[in-house]
Amino acid sequence: MQADDLLRFAADACERLQLTYFVTGSTATIAYGDPRLTADIDIVVDLPIGSVHAFCELFPSAEFYVSSESVQSAVRKGTQFNVIHPTSGLKIDFMIPKDTEFNRSRVARRRRLRVLSDRDVNFASPEDAILMKLRYYQEGESQKHLRDIAGVLRVQGASVDKAYIAKWAQSLGVWEVWNMILQQEGSADASGETVSSPNLDRDWEDHYATGHMPWDSGMPSSELARVLREHDVPLGRALELGCGTGTNAIWLAQQGYSVTAVDIAASALKLAQAKGEAAGVAVNWIQADVQNFGEGMEPFDLVFDRGCYHCCRRVDLGGYLNTLKNVTRPGTRFLCLCGNANEQSESRIPRVTEADVRDELGSLFDIVHLLVMHFEDAGGAQGPLGWSVWMERRSA
Q1: Do 276 and 246 meet the contact criterion of CB atoms below 8 Å apart?
Q2: Between helices 143-156 and 175-185, what is the axis angle to 10°?
């Protein structure tokens, strides 16, 4: 079974029972924007409790897995349930809508699209598909959601009702993300291609100039030390991406590595250089954008990133990955420490799901381990939840 077959099957089931439904999520943004692969179909369906048995019967157990108990629970609680096609690995996430003004608006604005060769299917409007992608991005900060939104805006052009999106973005608490997209959209050149720009996620210079650096513990990373020790990593040429005030770069130099460290903020590098001189070690400090760095450089043996990837992926993932291509070769080891999407506190650290780490960094590297860890705050206090991703660049 292919994705189109599964979509046809799901739409037939909903319409046979005369259920109100519409397709949303990635399937919707793909229909309105740029094509890409997805293994999941998201469908919002108003399923009465009395129709649960008949609905489940439409997905024969010889082909599908669906739990009627899970469906009943989702209907009662207004949550979601899954229908899985084990042979293909494809899955439908059916979402039961709560009675809210936004959901009523989504239902009223749904439209029929001819995405299958033989029939039309109900889809969320482009604007409502974008709004849900804004929510998904805010929850997990996956770059793919921003790419999907950008695709819809590019393909649909002036037909997108941005005033409608702005209204609901404020009500749904995703205005900050929508505003960021609008600002980046404004940086496109006449051809429609995005203009390369520095990391817009934060004004790094202001942070270093004012001393407001909540990510800077002032201590070498214990996770870096643990990984190098436990994996018996030999000395060689090391690169730190986003070195900040240089604490970890200096520590690596003290261990005997030949260290290059790069950061976009001149203020940070000024502090790092002074700390390096005081420690009596030599580090090659470079001011540059890590999303556009390393072309023509000799590749390094070891690359370290504490908190750079999880910021860059929200702005220019492609540029960051291209930098990694420039500065590594087959066999290069790479340790990336990034925010964990399972963090429950109000910490403002950017967060990444395990699936996105594997999808984005796994495109270049074999992942040796992907472990849960905690960042360290000032004084060594336990900080927010993170991922420790230890990788090796694979052969081309």
Answers
A1: yes
A2: 60
Q: How far is it, in rounded angstroms, from Cα 67 to Cα 52?
A: 10
Dihedral sign of CA atoms 355, 358, 361, 367 in order: positive
In 39-190, where does DSSP find H-type helix? Answer: 52-57, 68-77, 101-109, 126-140, 143-156, 162-172, 175-185
Q: How far apart are CA 242 and CA 245, in angstroms?
A: 9
Residues 117, 121, 125, CA angle at the centre, nearest 5°?
125
Segment 338-378, tens digit of pLDDT:
999 888 776 667 888 999 999 999 989 999 999 999 998 77
The structure's pTM equals 0.53
- Phi-psi category of 371—alpha, beta or left, where left has phi over 0 and alpha has psi -120 to 50? beta
Are 148 and 133 in contact, with CB atoms under 8 Å apart?
Answer: yes
Q: Which of 316, 369, 308, 302 is nearest to 339 (CA)?
A: 308
Side-chain half-sphere CA neighbours of 186 within 13 A: 6
Neighbouring residues of 292: CB distance < 8 A, sequence distance ≥ 6: 196, 319, 322, 323
Q: Which residues contact 213 (CB under 8 A, 6 or more apart)?
A: 207, 244, 245
Is 318 in contact with 366 (CB distance < 8 Å)?
Answer: no
Q: What is the largest CA-CA distance in the chain?
A: 76
- Indicate the burial class of 288 (C-beta count within 10 angstroms; 0-12, 13-18, 19 or more): middle
Give residue-wise pLDDT tens across range 175-217. Answer: 888 888 887 665 433 233 333 333 443 456 666 766 666 677 7
